[in-house]
Amino acid sequence: MNNQSKQHPDFSVQWHDSSQDFESRIYIDNPDQNTDALLLEQLREPLILLETTTTCVAVTEMCWNEPTSISLVPDRPAFSMMVSASPLFSVQYGYEEEQDTAAAIGNTLFLVPGRKITGHGSAGSFRSIMVSFDTAYAETLFGTLGELTSDQLTRALCVQNSLITSLLFRLMKEAMHPGTMSDAVVDACGKTMLVECAHWLNSTQPVADVRGKLTPKHLAIIEEYLNSTHGKLPSVADMAKACGFSERHFLKLFREEKKCTVAQYIKAFQVARAKTYLLDTDLPLKEIAFRLGFRSYNSFSSAFRAATGQSPNALRKKP
Fold it and tell me: Is 143 in a helix, a strand, or coil?
């Protein structure tokens, strides 16, 4: 890590707040050069790395003591996602000289080499995962990254794909608890992410706002969106936009198709997801609340009790 024999760093990161500026240039080496120990890179907070010849997984714990601005210049393609944060933490980002948009926990960003990202965040702590790739390798699977359209670049700022989100969580776990099969896991998951993202960017096209009804394609887009909303409450406006409808028309078509309101459907989806977390994982209750988009465990517990008649803790303790 940080062998500066390369002509350009793989990532150039600049931070600044009211009292200091900080810059880090990250060089990702061939892992054969670094076999002695698990590598750590200090980027204001520890960075845990897991590398293969084509792919690097980085899990970062960070804490900003005050509002902080950041700029990131990638020299290789990467997926980046915040996977947990303190309740009041917020962040906005976008391409340089373009309007920043608010990002929620669980948003997946696809970084394109040479496309500078700028942003700013509030004070708070968070964990992020970044999975980056050798550019030549990525383009054999993805295609020429320099040929992405402006619409594809915009959608790359928020990749709404549940498979990619799941693979990021899987690689985070692998980096934190590596084993004898870690290289194979990283390469397999990384390859799948690149292929899936290329497919998603090329196939996700806006649907015309016409009268009629929701098609199977619309319903698939809705399910994909709901499955990708880790750490934020689902937005009706986002669902309508993803389907290519005005919000008012979308609400009408949805009720006609599903025989319930969008709010009722989202509530049922959130309850089902909460039950899965409670019964099939050992995640702390506060972590489950944050993943579902609630600002606190108390608000999550109240909503869950109102929907099911029991508390999250009571459901988890049932034999």
Answer: coil
Q: Which residue type, as a one-letter code, is found at position 134?
A: D
Given CATH 2.60.120.10, say whether it is the number of domain 11-203.
Answer: yes
- The pTM for the full model equals 0.57
Residues 6+ apart with CB under 8 A from 314: none
Q: What pLDDT shows up at residue 194?
A: 94
Identify the architecture of domain 216-317 in CATH. Orthogonal Bundle (1.10)
Q: How far apart are CA 138 and CA 215, in angstroms?
A: 34
* Confidence check: pLDDT of 265 > 60: yes
CA distances from 119 to 13, 63, 67 (A): 11, 16, 11
Three-point CA angle 242, 114, 109, nearest 5°: 30
E runs forming strands in 65-135: 68-74, 78-85, 91-95, 101-103, 108-111, 117-121, 124-133
Burial of residue 96, with CB atoms counted within 10 A of its CB: 0-12 exposed, 13-18 middle, 19 or more buried: exposed
